[in-house]
Amino acid sequence: MKCFSMFSKEKSKSKKRESRSAPELRNQSKSDNPLSRTTRSMPSPRSIPEMYKEKEHNLRVFSLEELKDATNGFNRTFKIGEGGFGSVYKGTIRPLNGGGDPIVVAVKRLNTHGLQGHKEWLAEIQFLGVVSHPNLVKLLGYCSVDGERGIQRLLVYEFMPNRSLENHLFNTTSTLPWRTRLEIMLGAAQGLAYLHQGLEVKVIYRDFKSSNVLLDENFRPKLSDFGLAREGPTGDRTHVSTAVVGTYGYAAPEYVETGHLTIQSDIWTFGVVLYEILTGRRTIERNRPTSEQKLLDWVKQFPPDSRRFSMIIDPRVRGNYSLSAAQKVGKLANSCLNKNAKERPTMSQVVESLKQVIQESEEASSSAYKPASTSSTRKSVGRRSNKV
């Protein structure tokens, strides 16, 4: 609260020097914008910045005072997460028209060290200002202040009460059910498929991992953190050349080795998370025996077609899952992890595969828990269904 009072006192002094409307979102030159195309030839799809200009009015521009009020001065007790780009706080804002109930939100306050944070903040605004899908987190607005008290960059999102997939998958005090795991991955796949194929331009997410899959009150997944996202290649280009960034253990090998980024890079990381879903293990766990520290190296010893495959399944779901369905998930993961990027499935194909796995799991579950009946009619129906 002390910070809040100091800010209020100096408001009148710094008002002229501060910028709340982030004019660089509208006036930034293409040469400075990491999302702009470097070459243009024949008529081509609009870029993300071009599409953003049509939709920027949908985002609310917050003042720093509003977001301080919303989070009680960015009080530590309101902090719900922290990452490489900043801290996230739970907050409450008033509707723009002043009426209605307060809205619970998540406020991300970016670290102010270096220019890279600003570029990622800008990228997130532009991507999330354009995309619209049930499995992508919704950005409500932003705050940009350049004043005598320093640079402030904040983002305001819809609040996701069940936090992230990571919080539940690797939580030793609770178990994420098998069916819920599959449904979360299906939703995440649908979100990625939309990014890859549902817009004028292909979008490479580049940072798919369990901590970036947020869960709403019904455990519906939504992808978050678009600071590292990039537009995909256009025309006859096969890739986007860029610095290698992301999280160790998730990045595709061809991207790490060459810096060549494609939508197939997202397919690889999806395969990594599929194995996290199957095993309940993180991609890197230094506290395990050497042979088990790297998830992808360890699971190679247990191919989906082998009798040993069941040994890698998360012990917390054993007895409550379909082995046949799990084997299909393992095979799907392996296809996503194909060293030859061109042979990996598309996200649309992944979506269809997961739908089939979920249906098989449902059928296996209903068959396993179908109550016995003394009715001869029901018995005959049961016999007929078993032949299908």
Number of E-type strands: 12
- The CATH architecture designation of the largest domain is Orthogonal Bundle
The largest β sheet comes out as: 6 strands, mixed
Overall average residue pLDDT: 84
Low-pLDDT segments: 1-23, 26-32, 36-40, 372-388
Count of folded domains: 2
Superfamily (CATH H level) name of the largest domain: Transferase(Phosphotransferase) domain 1
Strand order of the largest sheet: 1-5-6-4-3-2
Helical stretch tally: 14
**The CATH topology of the largest domain is what?**
Transferase(Phosphotransferase), domain 1
Give the distance, in angstroms, between the N- and C-terminal Cα atoms: 67 Å
Binned, the helix content reads 25-40%
What are the secondary-structure elements, in order, as H or E? HHHHEHEEEHEEHHEEEEEHEHHHHH
Explain what you see.
It is a single chain. With 388 residues, this protein is α+β, with helices and mostly antiparallel strands. Helices cover 38% and strands 14% of the residues. The chain has helices spanning 2-9, 11-14, 24-27, 48-55, 64-70, 116-130, 165-169, 178-197, 253-258, 263-279, 295-299, 323-336, 347-368, 376-387, and strands spanning 60-61, 79-83, 86-93, 103-110, 139-147, 150-158, 203-204, 213-215, 221-223, 230-231, 240-241, 260-261. It has a 6-stranded mixed β-sheet with strand order 1-5-6-4-3-2, with helices on both faces. A two-stranded antiparallel ribbon has the order 7-10. Helix 8 packs antiparallel against helix 10 (263-279) and helix 12 (323-336) runs antiparallel to helix 13 (347-368). It starts with a helix and ends with a helix. Mean pLDDT is 84; it is low at 1-23, 26-32, 36-40 and 372-388.
